[in-house]
Fold:
Amino acid sequence: MYIDKAADYVGQVQTINGWVYNSRSSGRVAFVLVRDGSGIMQCVVAKGDVEESTFEAVRHLTQESSISITGTIHAEERAPGGHEMHVQKIEVHQAAMDYPITPKEHGVDFLMSNRHLWLRSKRQWAIMRIRATIVKSIRDYLDDNGFLLMDAPILSANACEGSSTLFSTDYFGIPAYLSQSGQLYNEATAMAFGRVYCFGPAFRAEKSKTRRHLTEFWMVEPEMAYCNWSQNCDVQEEFVTYIVQQVLEKRREELAIIERDTSPLEKIATPFPRISYDEAVKLLQQAGSPIQWGDDFGGDEETLISNQFERPVFVCSYPKSFKAFYMKTNPANPQTVLCADLLAPEGYGEIIGGGQREDDYTLLLERVRAEGLAEADYQWYLDLRKYGSVPHSGFGLGVERTVAWICKLPHVRETVPFPRLLEKIYP
Ligand code: 4AD
Ligand code: MG
Structure:
């Protein structure tokens, strides 16, 4: 039996294959908390109900020993999960000695270097299950709304998001990099399939050590032909609202385990406010920030802005100077581009970057040259503007930042099973 299915087995004798999460005993009765990956069950062993040797063995069970435990399943309101087992038999597969992560407090460095074990703890269990639901909601929404999955390559000769964060490889005889984003390929597949998405890992050799940056992260990137920047925002607000609602519906127990106050999440609904970069700069200046028009926003600025709104907020039309080469020039103000970043509330900041793509061949070629990109490598990408170019837009949502926000975690390191951070590759 799996613990999460206990309700189906009330009154029956069943076996759970799992690990000892915790145990305590008095002279006459022992309680063993057993986890099997699907949940945690309180197992009660009464002296007299089992053989003397079994009771003694239970009293000496150590944390994280692997066991099979057999007994009757009972409904029990006071037990975690609402069920408990009255034990008849225990088989110990391996007795764990000196498990390093004890119920006492440990420092983050210690836990990070024991990530392979830390994942067994209740809080990490809850976060990873919420992450899995976020990923499933992402796929469900896109699959059910006319987007076709189009996997983008990981190895690429093209830089998408600037040359300063590239991971290079030495194999093809020419420079090739781990993908920073599948977007450029999405633009090609969108012209073949209309609405597409890619979903996979992205790599950035980020030199910054912040609570928002990983060197390897997961990103979902939808791309739509015949779509302008504002229609692109319409899709994003529906998409993000759906993800939050799914988590609220399916992961109540996990949200409670991590003590997430869900009231801010209940407020997430369409439409999301949209402000321009100009307005955002004014808002920051009023709040005392020294920021000037033309400066990029860092984490602090994003936090300040997102704190002013209960819903995620779009910041639109950033200056061209610090945005990617593919963004479409804003006809109303050519110093800016038709893009929008989506900042999550509660101070979380950017979770989505997106916008409309430059669809004019000449203007795009100018941008490729101005950025000093090798023109020859972008011929295929420029081709898309020669053969049936159309207005098109898309966006990229970072999974780890979304998990951090929805779980209200202080750092992205707990949002993925094995985080890759600046100078951090073990385990
Ligand atoms: O804003 P970014 O760089 O946009 C792109 O890559 C576009 N090509 C996406 C597109 O339009 N198809 O990244 C998009 C999102 C960010 O908003 C953030 O959530 C996440 O990816 N992200 C990171 N997450 C963790 N660590 C990092 N180093 C990240 N860099 C970006
Ligand atoms: Mg961005």
The mean pLDDT is 96. The pocket of magnesium ion (ligand 2) is lined by residues 341, 350, 353 (CB under 6 Å). The chain has two domains: 3-94, 115-414. The two ends are 32 Å apart (CA to CA).
